Each structure stands twice: as structure tokens, then as C-alpha cells.
Amino acid sequence: MGIRYGIIGSGAIGCFYGAKLIQAGNDVHFLFHSDFEHVQKNGLRVDSVDGDMFFPKVNAYGQARDMPVCDVVLVALKSTQNHVLPSLLDPVVGPHTAIVLLQNGLGGERLLAEQTRAEHILGGLCLVCCNKLGPGHITHLEYGKILLAEYDRNDQPAGITPTMHAIAAPLQKAGIPIELSPDLVLARWKKLMWNIPFNGTCALLDAPTDKIMGCPQSRQLAFDLMQEVQAGAASQGRDISDEYIDEMMTFTDAMVSYMPSMMLDARHNRAMEVESIYGEPVRTAMRNGVHLVRTQTLYRQLTLLNARIYQQPPFGS
Predict the structure, then answer these.
(1) Is 191 considered catalytic here?
(2) Count of alpha carbons within 13 angstroms of residue 25, beta-carbon side
(3) Does residue 317 lie within any of the structural domains?
(4) Domain-embedded: residue 191
(5) What global pTM score does this model have?
(6) Are 219 and 238 part of one and the same domain?
(7) Pair (112, 216) in one structural domain
(8) Do both 109 and 207 map to the same domain?
(9) Which positions fall inside the Ketopantoate reductase N-terminal domain (predicted)?
(10) 68 phi and psi angles, rounded to 5 deg
């Protein structure tokens, strides 16, 4: 029998990768929220630079309790909803299930390890530009790679494990580029090298990435924030080279004009992933004696903006 996949969090990321797996003939089961009835009646559509996909019928669920136990669960739920993850995962996780966390920021894998019975937990860091256009309708603009790394409870490099190879192979067959990393902590900080300079800055300034890179002052701010992320990684014993910073600047120069998820969330009055992308890195570095001054400033500003969206007191108040 083939691998049964569960998608928890069927927004832009979950639907894009789930659609790629369906297209390759895999058994995929999606947990939807507000889009459930629409997808059940009208199917799932992905407009992609790699070729459009439309599936008139998919395995769509409105409640996690109705889903089957799955072999591999891709968690694409935003970290703002991590407090409900245990109840969503319980019906789909069996004794040999592997969970791949497709989230930004730090600390998510540790939460899963503490609150689920999954045999293997991996981080999946997505290098992809895709957005949700409407119910059951996703647009994929550019890229698509997932970097996989296995979680170690002591935050040590787990190496390239057999589980990583087993999960990577069918994803690659589905046309999803995969890179394997021996060190999840390093991989997370390297992803933050882009997310910290651009996700929150684009949200606060309501400006897409090309506008940030096109202004000398905001461009310099992005560079300075990357250097802070470099220092944050070093506080956990991980080295990110100066050359990698240059690569990230060049990469962002070359990409299409892009509105990151936090910018879209702010525009639509949705809660932003402030704690996982900004709060946890700031606190982690602080515990190790490193003060990320500019990142903490962004964190404080974004916390206030998030509190207005939430209409509740900011974290830690």
C-alpha cells in the first residue's frame, strides 16, 4: 500500500504541496476550516507557474476526528494556532506516524514532541511563494523547495536519517524539490535570515519585498537584521557565513515582487506569526547572552499591531 498523507492546515502552503502529491497519485487527506464546504462542492484549484492543477474531488474534512490515521502528516497550520494542534493531530497520528512541521520560526518541533505521540518529528522549511486567492483557490508564483531536517530533543544535529530519506523520496517523485539538512536548529536560523528582515518589515510598512529592497535605507535595515540573525544563530553554536547573507540579498533582489504572509495577514486583520518568527528567536538569543536589538524593536512593534488585530493584551503583558 502507498503512503497516506494528512494535511493539517489547508491554506496556501498545505494546498499547494497537497495538490502536488495528489497529482502524483498519492492518497491525500485535507483538513479544512472555512473552505471545507466550498472545496467539497467545487474542488481544489492551484494556479501554478509549474502548471495549473484542478481536482474536482478531494478528500476534504471539516473535523479532524473524521480523518483516518496517516503515515505522514504535513502540518501547514500557522503557528498562531499551535494551541489547538494536539486536538487536531490526535485522530491522525498513529504509533508509526511521522509529522513534518511546515511552519516558520523557532520552537514548533519541541511543542509537537511534548504534546503528540508521533514516532518521528521533522521540520520542513519551505522556500516557496504562494498565496490564497479565495476559497479552495491557490496561486503559486515561484519556487517550491522544502528543506527537511529531523528534530533532536537536545537541539543537537540529528544527521541525515533514514526517516528523512523515506519521506523525501515520494515528495521528490511528486515534483517537489527536497534538500536534506543534518541540523534542524541551523536550518531554522537560516530560514529566519529571510523571514526576520522581510516578513515583519513588509507588514509594518505595507510594502512588498521589491519596495523594501529598492529603498537604500530599508535595504540597509534588511542587511542589518540578517547580521543580527547571524548573531542569534551563533548564540546556539551555529555558524552562518557572511556569504550566506550576500546570497539572501541577491536572492531577494531576483525574486518577484512578493507580499509575505505577515503582510497579507495584517492587511486582512488576521493574527500574525509574531511569537514564532520574532519573539522566540529574541528570547532564545537572550537566554544565551545575545541581545538582538533591531529584531526586538520589530518584535515590539509587531506585538502592538498584532494586539490590535487580536483586540487583546499583547504577549507577556
Answers:
(1) yes
(2) 4
(3) no
(4) yes
(5) 0.92
(6) yes
(7) no
(8) no
(9) 6-152
(10) -80, 165
